[in-house]
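Next up, a specimen:

>
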Amino acid sequence: MIVRNISIKKYNTFGLDYKADSLITISTEDEATSAIKNIDRSKPILIVGGGSNLLFVSDFPGTIIHPEIDGIEITEQNNDFVIISAGAGVIWDDLVGWCVVKGFGGLENLSLIPGNVGATPVQNIGAYGREIKDSIIKISAIGLKDGHYREFRSDECRFGYRDSIFKGELKGEYLITKVFYRLTLNPEYQLEYGSLKDEVLKLGQISLKTVREAVINIRRSKLPDPAVKGNAGSFFRNPLITGDKAFELKANYPDIPLYNDQSGGKKAAAGWLIEQCGWKGHRSGDAGVHEKQALVIVNHGNATGRDIFDLSEMIRASVLEKFGIELEREVEIAGSI
């Protein structure tokens, strides 16, 4: 279905009331193939799922594709693992909850992350020591140039920290329609990140259910509900730094949280860096930094996308000046700055 000159307020979790020239909703792969062949390619094209990782800074002068492909299926199962597929339009946390009830392990640490299934490989979402790349085995997608069908194996996706081929070389070239995950029937729990283990033990024995509940409790205690206060969760990535830089920071700031990265380097906690620069709880008009988590920029009601973008630039400048670290936005900017 195509709608012209439509408000996109409900398609972004900042609640910004801009307009798009047109919006196409897609419910099946066949619909995707048909719709893509008729898109006006003289204008920009943007794929928007839950809109939880987007900051619109103006009206969007092109076509937004909104996948609503539903459905969760078990495609293979034995005594050790199960493979499931989920449509791109499935709400991510609904899928995590479904897996936990079924006893399928691997996604529980990623509970309550906002957004839809289709965005999980694009962002390589992660939390509490887990990344989605460790569970994805393949992806179904439709090419935006000619509507052709293609499958991507996990190793073809070039997953990195909050990154994938769909944010780089193939950005804007494919619409993800389904994602296939390999999950375990014999869970190996990852509880070493932050206070997660303590929170789990407060709930009783370690299980998929208690890990999910603990993650939800922690996230709700720190992060604002986008339905109440517009936000996109973590606005910045935790920066990757060299071992030498980590040593320097630890010497000057003994309390700085540093985490090992698979690359062999270290990750610094972006929220801590921002808080040390005095931004936690700061408000500039209706754009502000959340009072409980400095990594989250919020819309207190009537902020514009440009207000939020400008605040993020001031934060980046201050962290660079104080720590010599350049923060990268996790949130994608859409529209004209």
Observations:
- The chain has a mean pLDDT of 95.
- The CA atoms of residues 69 and 266 lie 38 Å apart.
- Helices lie at 29-36, 92-102, 120-123, 196-202, 208-222, 243-252, 270-276, 305-323.
